[in-house]
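In response to reviewer comment 3 from the previous cycle, which asked for concrete evidence that the modeling workflow produces usable outputs, we include below a single protein chain processed end to end. The sequence was submitted unchanged, and the resulting structure tokens are shown without manual editing.
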Amino acid sequence: MKFRKVIILLLLLSLWGGTMLFADSASQKVRVIINGIEQDEGGLVADGRTYLPLRELATSMQAIVEWDNPNKRATVYKPNVHMFLFRNNTVFGNVTKGYQGSFKVFAQIDNLKTDIVAVKVSIFDPGGKEKVIQTGNVNPTNDNFWYATEDIEYKFESSGKYPIRFFIKRTASDDWTPVSEKIISSL
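The workflow returned the following structure tokens.
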């Protein structure tokens, strides 16, 4: 009787192990690296196709994802957003550590294929702390428009990279989605 239980247990474990090996060979995990940064969510290869996590890819590529749950459809929008930084009508860029002064951000947005309600421009210190430069409600009537901030007074207290990010909101209830980034280096 004991021998029979051991045989049944061994058969069940063999069947389970074979199933797991088959499932592992049917789909393989893929590491996803974007601009040298490995993403938290990897992809899968199944039946000769590679499947990647759309939301994470869109975020890394600074694109907007619209999810239509009833139709099970994802739409990705990638507007072109070009930012220019100015101080006293001259181009503004890298600064020395401890620099304090004012600058403004000028953004050109085109290829906007979805409606939006608001934009936001922020600067982040090297530690990731955000300072909002300006937000504004917008209602563009076509796929391109310009957006300029007022002058902002800012002190670059430490050395490092200070990203300036341009965000879009599709609807009032949506989260802010970053769609462009410009870096100021403080040396």
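The chain is about 15% helix and 50% strand. We consider this sufficient to address the reviewer's concern, and the full set will be provided in the supplementary archive.
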